[in-house]
Amino acid sequence: MTSSNVSEALGYEQARDELIDVVRRLETGGTTLEESLALWERGEELAKVCRQWLEGARKRLNAALAEERSDGEEESDGEGRPGSGGE
Prior knowledge:
By secondary structure, the protein is mostly helical. The chain has helices at 3-9, 12-28, 33-74.
């Protein structure tokens, strides 16, 4: 399994926590150039995973909101007002 596949298997919170750790290690310093590059590459992978999770969550929210709006339109009388509803 490649590191990219491993990254994709991470949940949002796992990826975010590891990314925080990577950033902390880079900011602290004390690593070799090679270690710093490896950390930076890992950080990029983790940031991508986080973005994908957030984009997926945004799409789900937008779909739910669109469904809610369409349900609300079906209950209106066609002019944006609530229908008689059998009253």
